[in-house]
Write a structure and sequence with these properties.
Length: 85
């Protein structure tokens, strides 16, 4: 089963963790350990929360009603009294 590559911010600490076991475990055991850690990072609720916190930030969103996360406000548009433009 093929996986999407992990985010570098997650893959780097995972590889650092596995480094401690190189030379102690067989390549097959290291691969199994990597798969187990990847599964935990993908499925466990706490790990998912950490991934969202550590991952890239979503682009800010501006709406007519409000400005979110410092996005540029939508310019005010003149509207007719009836609400039709």
């Amino acid at each position: 089963m093929s996986r999407d590559p992990l985010d570098p911010e997650i893959a780097r600490p995972l590889e650092q963790t596995l480094e401690a076991y190189r030379g102690l475990l067989t390549p097959e055991d290291l691969a199994e350990m990597r798969e187990l850690l990847e599964d935990v990072l993908e499925a466990h609720p706490t790990a998912a929360l950490l991934r969202r916190r550590l991952g890239p930030k979503e682009a800010p969103v501006a709406t007519e009603e409000s400005v979110v996360d410092g996005a540029n406000p939508v310019p005010d548009q003149k509207r007719s009294a009836s609400g039709d433009d």
